[in-house]
Write a structure and sequence with these properties.
Length: 268
């Protein structure tokens, strides 16, 4: 809770008695990391794709649960299509050419352009199925690309899945700072650890002189991490190559050295 002292011996709450969802029998995951933003359009799914690709390149076994059920984009970024297969025991994830296990609602519909028109409880039920009914196997990391905001699906994930922690994604605009604070406060209220902040679209590197240009104004990242006492895990540039690679389903070929602090933070 918000007033948690993190000293369980003096606490009357029953956090330790929370009954988390169980993974499918035979699935073992060392770290489950949520990637969240307070609003859409800041690059949360991009950060999920980049860090998952980076950890797979480092030799780790990686999976992604695309929990952004009404705006799924992970399959497209990795060039995955078609329907997931399953049997009476569970669902098998798709596997990217890099070996990343991917589960998304877009891989459960015949036409990926079909909308998911569910109310909140049904969306929450679907995301729990994508967590507990899928045969992920042995993973070092399962990254959960969470929907924007602080509503039903995110509450389900934060309260029912034993997260190692959250990565919060922002952009430099003043409005986004306010939304980031909502995400941070949500994590605090639900007693979920925040691993740090990644600021996307921080700058453009001039092709002529190499200087950094700031189309959205100077970064607010340092101020946010200072105010909330969390690490800054990366400031990502605007790069036209990224859109092309996503369209080609080849995001894993993009090496983002700006995520080095994040890699160091979560490395096993």
């Amino acid at each position: 809770m918000a007033d948690c002292t993190h000293n369980c011996s003096t606490c009357s709450s029953k956090c330790s008695e929370i009954e988390y969802l169980s993974l499918h029998e035979g699935t073992h995951v060392k770290q489950i990391i949520g990637v969240v933003s307070g609003k859409g359009g800041v690059g949360k799914s991009l950060v999920t794709s980049l860090i998952a690709s980076r950890m797979a390149r480092e030799g780790y076994k990686v999976g992604i649960l695309d929990a952004d059920l009404t705006g799924p984009s992970i399959p497209k970024a990795f060039g995955l299509s078609g329907m997931l297969e399953g049997d009476k025991d569970g669902i098998y994830p798709a596997t990217s050419k890099e070996g990343i296990k991917v589960v998304s609602v877009n891989l459960l519909v015949e036409d990926e352009t079909n909308p998911i028109i569910y109310r909140g409880p049904a969306l929450s039920g679907l995301v729990t199925q994508l967590y507990k009914d899928v045969k992920y196997g042995d993973l070092d990391y399962l990254f959960i690309d969470m929907p924007p905001g602080t509503a039903d699906v995110n509450l389900t994930i934060l309260k029912q899945i034993p997260l190692t922690g959250l990565i919060i994604v922002s952009t430099p605009q003043d409005l986004v700072r306010v939304i980031v604070e909502k995400s941070l406060k949500m994590a605090d209220i639900l007693n979920v650890k925040v691993l740090g902040l990644v600021e996307n679209m921080s700058y453009i590197t001039c092709e002529c002189c190499g200087n950094k240009l700031y189309p959205f104004g100077q970064s607010h990242a340092e101020k946010i991490v200072s105010d909330f006492n969390i690490p800054l895990l990366g400031e990502l540039p605007i790069d036209s190559k990224i859109a092309k690679l996503v369209d080609e389903g080849n995001i894993s070929s993009y090496f983002c050295e700006e995520l080095d602090p994040l890699v160091s933070k979560i490395a096993l």
